[in-house]
Amino acid sequence: MVEFEKCFIMLCTNATEDECLRRNLFGDLDWRLQYLRGIKTGDIGLLLNVSKDEVIGIFRARSEPQLNIVPDAWGGKFPVQVRVEPIGKIQRIRGAASIFEKIGIKMIEEKIKSCPRSVDEEQLRRYKEWGKKYGNIA
User: Fold this and answer.
1) CA-to-CA distance for 138 and 128, rounded, in angstroms?
2) Which of 76, 87, 74 is nearest to 43 (CA)?
3) Is residue 71 packed enough to be buried (19+ CB in 10 Å), middle (13-18) or exposed (0-12)?
4) Residue 99 main-chain phi, psi, to 5 deg
5) Measured distance CA(33)–CA(94) in Å, rounded
6) What is the pLDDT of residues 5-62, one digit of tens each?
7) Which residues of 83-120 are buried (b: 16+ CB within 10 A; e: fewer)?
8) Is the terminal CB of the chain with fewer CB neighbours within 10 Å at N or C?
9) Could you say which architecture CATH assigns to the domain 7-133?
10) At residue 75, does pLDDT exceed 70?
């Protein structure tokens, strides 16, 4: 079981997932940097593949969000980057939208119009409870 205080979620698609996993790097658009500044080295991270509706994890941040850790990653399209490392064996959980809904995070129309980038304390508590109940992640 992984103990944690704070968790962050970053997005990928089928087209970007392999590079995220191969490089141990999560990325986002440059204007998102201000919203990701709360991610600190050591925080727990999850990768949400919006194409598959699948949560991938568990990761630990090895850096804070920075511009262009690997400038050519994803063809330069996602310059805000966080270096991560997997914790143990990578796990995949399908049905991310329904899982997030159970902890109070609503996904809309199978495409995420407003995706959580961080999880508040109440959501974290519910997520940990879900994990204990089902034996995954938390």
Assistant:
1) 5
2) 87
3) exposed
4) -65, -50
5) 28
6) 778 999 999 999 999 999 999 999 999 999 899 999 999 999 999 889 899 999 999 9
7) bbeebeeeeebeebbebbeebebebeeeebeeebeebe
8) N
9) Roll (3.10)
10) yes
